[in-house]
Amino acid sequence: MALERLNYSKLVEKHILECIKGGIGIRQMIASMQHLNDAPKSLSTLYKHYGNFIEAERAKINGAVGKRVIDQALDGDFKSQELFLRSKGGWSPTHTVTEVEQDTDPDLDESAIDTLMGLLGITDQEDKS
Fold it and tell me: What are phi and psi of 41, to 5 degrees?
């Protein structure tokens, strides 16, 4: 049994566009278009015939939303600034710097090397004079 070749369909393309603009996931998109002639039945077939269209449409939407967020952030909107810094700047509100107070006098504090040298009985040249 030979498989029939799937034809490109403007109706399928329109359905895909509506799904992308509505934020519908790919698997739901495939399921929702099965009533259309020449609708792809699998993920691989969908991307084979409409992959470039899907990626171009997503890039267009991401670009438009990104531009809006950046414009708002540059205008001083705190939420947009935070969103931008989290997604593009690597910033996280949970990343904090912890300061620790030192309990000992820094002038009396010995380094690990000085302590080890003392335990080994090796003294500094200045101590010998």
Answer: -105, -10
Asked whether the predicted pLDDT for residue 52 surpasses 60, the reply is yes
Distance between CA 61 and CA 50 in Å, rounded?
A: 17
Residue that is written with structure tokens 């009396």 in the block: 108
For residues 116 and 129, what is the distance between their CA atoms, to the nearest angstrom?
21
CA atoms of 75 and 98, how far apart (whole Å): 32
Confidence check: pLDDT of 59 > 60: yes
Whether the CB-CB separation of 58 and 20 falls below 8 Å is answered with yes
**CA 17/CA 53 separation, integer angstroms:** 9
Predicted TM-score (pTM) of the model is 0.60
φ/ψ of 19, rounded to 5, equals: -65, -45
DSSP class of residue 129 equals -
Average model confidence (pLDDT) for the chain?
Answer: 85
Which residue type does 16 have? I
Q: Distance (Å, rounded) from C-alpha 10 to C-alpha 4?
A: 18
